[in-house]
Amino acid sequence: xxxxxxxxxxxxxxxxxxxxxxxxxxxxxxxxxxxxxxxxxxxxxxxxxxxxxxxxxxxxxxxxxxxxxxxxxxxxxxxxxxxxxxxxxxxxxxxxxxxxxxxxxxxxxxxxxxxxxxxxxxxxxxxxxxxxxxxxxxxxxxxxxxxxxxxxxxxxxxxxxxxxxxxxxxxxxxxxxxxxxxxxxxxxxxxxxxxxxxxxxxxxxxxxxxxxxxxxxxxxxxxxxxxxxxxxxxxxxxxxxxxxxxxxxxxxxxxxxxxxxxxxxxxxxxxxxxxxxxxxxxxxxxx
Length: 287
Description:
It is built from seven helices and eight strands; from the N terminus they run βββαβααβαβαβαβα. It is α/β, with parallel strands linked by helices.
């Protein structure tokens, strides 16, 4: 599997972006030329406190978007990990959806120190110039910093979960093997078996036995970029080590089936998967 295999379902859709700098987030949608406005979900901010912020890290501040209920504190927290396209409106909307269920959800732009994704339109270039240059160790440290920010901003340090999409699904597996304070993780179509590099030295398959929390993996049966057998192998390895893992495959769904701004969106499967994630979090003590 090559480094771009996880985006095979996206290659036919040219990217169009606007507006990300180290101090701010993407203001529009990626893949704008193939947006399907009629199907996109727009969650309002009624009853929410939502907006942009900065996450202090070991090497400077990173831009982020958060959403939480307007009243209260010590909210259960979900770290939302972006795709390879940055923290655009869809990712922000996912944070608002979680906030409507009582969570503090925060999505950090983890690639901001490496490149400006808002100005990149070619997926191979995004991988070569940004994704491949992002050390997994730094990503784990940045996720830790995001969790620390949340705990200081009305989030609960004890009720912590992580979810991520596409490349973010991969990072969800890795973070679940990294942070012993997590209660639960939910990975959406995250690749688990890729070549190792010096700065990305271990795949989720390699680290599956080290999971620190229950993990839900949701995958499309028509995803040509991720082998279900690889995912099941990672789950089997984790279960053999006494870990709790559930893999759900939606037979007719392609890669990116939750991305309601792209043609890959499958509304029924996405709604079912979303509810399954919420139930997973509640079952394992996040909510």
